[in-house]
């Protein structure tokens, strides 16, 4: 019983270390694929679509989908920042200007509306200046507390 409490106090379990590493790799690979376009040698499919560059977004979506599937199966929470950067409908990495459009809406409350350019799904996040995500709070993350103290000393 005591051993279990100690493990919980240290943060994420060591049992899932490889899973976290793999999820991290998949997330970074997905971000790279969303930002990359590849030149193709194929003829354009129609005369209307005349560009020979092709986005690797599909591969990035597959990586994100795999990452979310792993988290769901092992009941691991994704970091909210990671979760907010992925489209919940099509798993596209939401890069502003590339795969998503970001708008500020002021009514009824100031919100950031991120629209996925692939599937047109909206993601609305309330933008309060004093709002802090639960896992960003200093009392939750001891490493951030020490960083804050070091900054105050400098
Ligand atoms: Zn989408």
Radius of gyration using CA atoms only: 20 Å
Strand order of the largest sheet: 3-4-5
Task: Report the order of strands and helices.
Answer: HHEEHHEEEH
Q: What fraction strand? A: 5-15%
The number of domains is: 1
Number of helices: 5
Q: Tell me, rounded to a whole number, the average pLDDT.
A: 82
SSE arrangement:
Layout: H1 2-9, H2 17-35, E1 37-39, E2 53-55, H3 57-73, H4 80-84, E3 100-105, E4 111-116, E5 122-126, H5 142-153
Antiparallel strand pairs: 1-2, 3-4, 4-5
The structure holds zinc ion.
Zinc ion binds at residues 87, 89-90, 92, 116, 118-119, 121.
Tell me what the structure shows.
By secondary structure, the protein is α+β, with helices and mostly antiparallel strands. The chain has one domain. The protein is built from 5 helices and 5 strands; from the N terminus they run ααββααβββα. It has helices at 2-9, 17-35, 57-73, 80-84, 142-153, and strands at 37-39, 53-55, 100-105, 111-116, 122-126. It has a 3-stranded antiparallel β-sheet, with no helix packed on it. Helix 2 (17-35) packs antiparallel against helix 3. The longest helix is centred in the N-terminal third of the chain and has 19 residues, at 17-35. It is globular and about 60 Å long. The N and C termini lie far apart (42 Å). The model has no long low-confidence stretch (mean pLDDT 82).
